[in-house]
């Protein structure tokens, strides 16, 4: 079908949104649209938005307004806005971004072709945008036949969407609904499709991957899924992201520990460590349980790399509670840690809590925690200097240096490893680490004799 519309696509937000973008691009390409990276050369611009935080809303509105501006100055004839911000704000978004031609909610992702090709959404009529929006969260959509935006050799595989946790600061359940899990066979089929498409590393994502299978009558959980993925030929690395601490089980830990293809890496947002704050966040876990779990992970998975995320400035957080968080981070020693300044989201329980923390204090706490973590991260990276690691090469950085990642470095969120020489993207190279460069490492392929370095 020759629709020959050229479409530029902007993907904002998290890896789950990226998978939605890849799926929508796959559908547009299948419908005959030509995909372009150049917005000035596009008939239609699609923006897949994030709506998680107020900051992501501001970013999305800015990008949308810029695209609408191209309708006045350029070739663009149509602007389509999709994703979480549409699901969260609905048609109310239109007053902030006049000139948009269509809205596509997260549950109507598969209507993107109709939205781009001037379909028959509600409100159709002169000058009124098409709207594809519903609150019904379908059984989780499959993400096959994507047009991938990541480098060929690694991919994200969403195993579930939505979330059953009720963290008081979080808008995601109100946007993405309750958790829906992909049947194991669908996950395995997608994994094989990604391998056939060149992926050697698959990063498992969801809002809470640990609760995978909660709705399956046969109790097929994440541990069995990991073991099944461990059998997929052509895969080298399976990485687990978005672990929720209170539902981490020994079976899952054992699967990570014993499956060869499952990397010894865990991304587990903890958000805080103080019991009063954890309770107010409704994280369903205590300080003692968190520390016990972290100890069990290190004991049962020797050499495991642990990444986490913390929130500073949660309503009511006292200086003492914040100091407890810093002391914990300094003591435990995470390989990587991201920090969010608490963002007041009016439609969340925490948004209605007393004791909101001033922005200045949030900034100070953010800087202090990142400072503390920097010392820890440098120390943990220093411990890898002199070690020999298997590195998956991602490609050249902006200076032309070849970078890759060892198993303890997830794409885009963690540090990288610089590799001397000219290895190919997607290639695994055995690298002797020779130095730390800030949060990153650098090394030489073991095939390069030491004498060459002298
Ligand atoms: S686990 Fe908590 S923070 Fe994560 S998506 Fe669910 S409700 Fe939000």
Question: What this model shows, in words?
Answer:
This protein has 454 residues and is an alpha/beta fold. It folds into 3 domains: 6-132, 3-Layer(aba) Sandwich (Rossmann fold), CATH 3.40.50.12160; 154-382, tm_1862 like domain (pyruvate-formate lyase- activating enzyme, Alpha-Beta Horseshoe), CATH 3.80.30; 388-445, Nucleic acid-binding proteins (OB fold (Dihydrolipoamide Acetyltransferase, E2P), Beta Barrel), CATH 2.40.50.140. 32% of the residues lie in helices and 22% in strands. The chain has helices at 15-30, 54-73, 84-89, 112-116, 172-176, 184-196, 222-229, 250-258, 275-280, 287-300, 319-332, 359-382, 450-453; strands spanning 6-11, 34-36, 44-49, 78-83, 102-104, 130-132, 154-158, 160-161, 180-181, 201-205, 237-240, 262-267, 305-312, 336-341, 388-396, 402-406, 417-419, 428-437, 440-445. The strands form 4 sheets. A 6-stranded parallel β-sheet has the order 2-1-3-4-5-6, sandwiched between helices. It has a 6-stranded parallel β-sheet with strand order 7-10-11-12-13-14. Helix 7 runs parallel beside helix 8 (250-258). The protein is globular and about 60 Å long. It starts with 5 loop residues before the first strand and ends with a helix. Iron/sulfur cluster is lined by residues 163, 165, 167, 170, 172-173, 207-208, 244.
Which CATH first-tier class of the largest domain would you pick? Alpha Beta
Distance between the termini: 61 Å
Helix content: 25-40%
Say how many strands there are: 19
The secondary-structure class comes to alpha/beta
Summed up, the helix count is 13
| CATH homologous superfamily classification of the largest domain | tm_1862 like domain
Radius of gyration: 23 Å
| Fraction in beta strands | 15-25%
């Amino acid at each position: 079908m020759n629709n020959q519309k050229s479409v530029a696509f902007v993907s904002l937000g998290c890896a789950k949104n990226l998978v939605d973008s890849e799926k929508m691009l796959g559908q547009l390409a299948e419908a005959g649209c030509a995909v372009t990276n150049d917005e000035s050369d596009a008939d239609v611009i699609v923006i897949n938005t994030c709506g998680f935080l107020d900051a992501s809303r501001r970013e999305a509105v800015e990008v949308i307004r810029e695209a609408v501006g191209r309708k006045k100055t350029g070739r663009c004839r149509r602007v389509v806005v999709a994703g979480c911000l549409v699901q969260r704000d609905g048609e109310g978004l239109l007053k902030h971004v006049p000139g948009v031609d269509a809205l596509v909610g997260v549950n109507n992702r598969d209507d993107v072709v109709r939205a781009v090709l001037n379909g028959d959404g509600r409100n159709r009529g002169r000058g009124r945008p098409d709207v594809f929006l519903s609150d019904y969260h379908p059984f989780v959509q499959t993400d096959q036949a994507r047009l991938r935006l990541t480098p060929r050799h690694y991919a994200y595989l969403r195993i579930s969407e939505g979330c059953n946790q009720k963290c008081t600061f979080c808008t995601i359940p109100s946007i993405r609904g309750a958790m829906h899990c992909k049947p194991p066979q669908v996950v395995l089929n997608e994994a094989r499709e990604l391998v056939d498409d060149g992926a050697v590393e698959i990063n498992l994502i969801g809002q809470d991957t640990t609760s995978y299978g909660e709705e399956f009558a046969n109790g097929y959980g994440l541990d069995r899924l990991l073991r099944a993925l461990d059998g997929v030929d052509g895969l080298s690395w399976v990485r687990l992201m978005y672990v929720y601490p209170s539902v981490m089980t020994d079976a899952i830990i054992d699967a990570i520990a014993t499956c060869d293809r499952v990397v010894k890496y865990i991304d587990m947002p903890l958000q805080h460590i103080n019991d009063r704050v954890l309770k107010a966040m409704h994280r369903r876990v205590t300080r003692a349980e968190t520390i016990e779990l972290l100890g069990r992970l290190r004991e049962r998975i020797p050499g495991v790399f642990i990444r986490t995320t913390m929130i500073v400035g949660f309503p009511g957080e006292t200086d003492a509670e914040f100091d407890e968080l810093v002391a914990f981070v300094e003591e435990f020693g995470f390989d990587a840690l991201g920090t969010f300044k608490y963002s007041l989201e009016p439609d969340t329980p925490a948004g209605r809590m007393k004791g909101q923390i001033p922005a200045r204090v949030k900034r100070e706490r953010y800087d202090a925690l990142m400072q503390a973590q920097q010392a820890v991260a440098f120390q943990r990276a220093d411990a890898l200097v002199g070690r020999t690691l298997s590195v998956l090469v991602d490609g050249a950085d902006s200076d032309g240096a070849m970078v890759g990642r060892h198993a303890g470095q997830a794409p885009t969120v963690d540090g990288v490893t610089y590799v001397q020489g000219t290895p190919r993207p997607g290639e695994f190279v055995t690298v002797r680490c020779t130095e730390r460069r800030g949060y990153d490492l650098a090394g030489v392929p073991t095939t390069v004799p030491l004498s060459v370095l002298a």
